[in-house]
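pinning this so it doesn't scroll away 📌
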Amino acid sequence: MSIRRKTNPLFGLIILAAALIVLARTLGLLPETVFDLILRAAPVLLVLVGAAFLLQDRLPFSGLIALLLSAVVVAVIGLTAYSTREGQTREDTRQPIEQAIAPEITLLRIRISALATGVDILSGEAGRVTGEFLGSVDNRVDVRYEQLGDNSATLTLRETEPDEFPRLEAVGRGTLRLTLPVGVPLDVELLGQDGSVVLNMSGTSLERLNVNTRRGEVVVTLPEYEPLFSEQNELLGTLTTQQGDLTLFIPATVAARLELDRGNSGFDPQHDPNVYNYLVVGDVLESREINTAAITVRYAVVVPAGRIRVEVPG
């Protein structure tokens, strides 16, 4: 009487999967980042084979259980590795930024689009924008400068998207530092996904400012400057952080009207009641000198999940 040898179809599936992966990579159908992830997960095959041996003849569907166990191990290790790298600030890429601004420019628009990057801006020298981007190996900033016939110009800085499945080495936070020129009117717009934002606009000729970040703390220092290209009481921009706190430093010589949108945060705005008056109707924080000050500005402030703080430096 012959004894039928038991075989585990799991080993056949492993060999078939390996063959398909090699074939897909040879034909260029498998992205390099996905192949890199598969190679990193390859040692889990030892867990799979070991679990299959241990569970064989002990539990029904032992191969399936071993496969699910291995998938859980891969998911836990992968999520842990990526989440750990995601919170680290990387300096693998160092990209200098410098753009000369012609003296005849009457308005300079700055357009910044950032990913998981902290942005730090302050005033610099007349006639040029300088700075540096620090990030992971796959991150870059595309810089484009366009001068128009009406003597205005637009400088666009856009952080490029990484691959759909980024390599582990490509995961991490970046930092963008910029100095903006003094003496030229500025229209600044910043869009961010995840990262702190510090905009020290003291000394600049800030005409308009729009900030919209998905997650991160935002700190803005307004200049002692009266916008030239806006009507009186015109909205000069919107300052938004969807998940984070916002702090505004406003010079004593500037009277601001801040129209608040606090969502469901439940946090009262923090301010000096001797300098700013909180108007319950309309949810507005307004300088007590709004009707007599030489310089007045009006901004919308959207902070649905954090705190709003207004400081008047001494």
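📌 and the second one:
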Amino acid sequence: MGAYVVRRIGISVVQLLGVAFFAFMLIHFVPGNPIANMLGPRATPREIDLVSARLGLTKPLPQQFWLFLVHLVTFHFGQSITFGQSISSLITQRVVPSIALISYGTIVAIVLGVPLAVIAALKAETATDHAVRVFTSVSFAMPTFWSGLILAIIFGLKLGWLPVSGYGAGFGGIVRSLTLPAIALGLSLLAVIVRTLRSSLRHTMALEYVEAARARGFTTRRVLIRHVFRNAVMPTVTVLAVSVGFLIGGTVVLEQVFQIPGLGTLLFQAVEQRDYPLVETLAVLAGSLVVLLNLGTDLLQATVDPRVRPGAKSV
């Protein structure tokens, strides 16, 4: 187990370096000059050059990348060109709405997806199973901004039940303001949960020890809870961890649609203004979150099921 942990951590470090490199390079290929945007149309070339030199943007790219890595490791993210304040403070101000939206959307997906997956597995290849799969396929195919707009029109503008923009105050206000975007985000993730869990449940229910439990007269509910579900859920947890990047992308769009002041809105503004340091930092943080969650999921899976470790003998 120790060798597997070391190997897996090493792979994650390489992945993190790759995320940092591509985030750094891609933003430099985006057309536009962030200093010119910051200073305005009346800025002279000399003023632009002076500010660029002060911010270190005139140094060779390898030197800029090295300084970027040093700042990431030391958690000194520097200053935002557009907002004129530290990137750390900007992230601190905006991170809570984004985390709340992702968490709320994941909860919605789990609350809806787990019962639907169980029903589809128990009613496999019936009309109920087909209906569940069609519904989840449609929800997955709909872009998050489109489903968010539909929900806002119906439940916000027509019925007036929920707000369609802004970020409320207090727990109740936050829940109300995030309900519609969270449902849109959860619906986009629903198909992943239902299809993965349904397949895993069907596979587990066909195993011999489950058939033996049924032969002993255990109820379907007891067999599902004690013998099937806890052994079938791990692949779904793994897929959820891999889907974090998808959730982050959906959050960026939904925060724009519902005017939520989170990291997604901040990233959109930073890209629009060619704010190199801010875009690079946000991209690396999002990529690092995905890498670290995948690492944690792999280590958890290896702890629960030693067969997934390289070199382990199947039983």
